[in-house]
Amino acid sequence: MKHQDLREEVAEVARQMISSGLVTGTSGNVSARTPEGDILITPSGVDYEIMQPEDVVLVNVDGELLDGSLKPSTETPMHTGIYRSRQQVDAVVHTHSRYATTLACLGWEIPPVHYMLTTLSGDGRIPLAPYTTYGTEELAGYAAEALGESRNACLLQNHGTITVGESPEKALSRTVVLEEMAEIYYHARLAGEPILLTPQQIEEVATKISGYGQSKPASVDAE
Ligand SMILES: [Zn+2]
């Protein structure tokens, strides 16, 4: 994809984070890997509703500024750390979405309570990366470790969410699923003791979802 198209997608997904209610103000950030292997990332402290594609900043995979008049997101080290550890990942979305962050503040991970979690993580579990100061290489390391080799989502303790994908749109759609799952799990925990799916039940769903060439895991039907 051309840089300009990718810039527009990053800016559009940042706007959608606001319009969908996943984030407010300037919290949360979006990035994408270019065909050359550099990173386009939302700028720091700019209201996403008025942000333009030209405001998206280009950095290399070590976070050094290549092009842009604005400062890159303060969370750039976390994004670049994930791109360095996961070669197949081409987009990262980070939010402080309400329910997922509520769980992260309680120190809860999400266990396999719903089959849709398999679209985010093969074992149906969304892990929690330990707390450390935002914007640090240490946080990048914790996030990369929680995501492991194949997970598409994790929680950051006392902070928020990370989702990854092959495009910013895909990573955002996974944030929407993660937030929905977090809300359901939170309410289930308040009301009682949630029933967890067994490893066999999770594996059956994972096989079913990945077994069809035309399947779109993030938009799987409710049956
Ligand atoms: Zn954050």
From TrEMBL:
* Taxonomy, superkingdom: Bacteria
Instruction: List the Pfam families.
Output: Aldolase_II (PF00596)
Report the residue ranges that make up the Class II aldolase/adducin N-terminal domain in this protein.
8-186
Q: Which UniProt keywords apply?
A: Lyase, Metal-binding
Any one GO biological process: pentose catabolic process
A GO CC annotation given for this chain: cytosol
Key word Metal-binding present? yes
Asked if the record carries the keyword Isomerase, the reply is: no
- UniProt xrefs under InterPro entries: Aldolase_class_II_sugar_metab, Aldolase_II/adducin_N, Aldolase_II/adducin_N_sf
Q: Name one GO molecular function term.
A: aldehyde-lyase activity
- Parts of the chain that traverse the membrane: none
Question: What name does UniProt use for this protein?
Answer: Ribulose-5-phosphate 4-epimerase and related epimerases and aldolases
Please give the organism.
uncultured Rubrobacteraceae bacterium
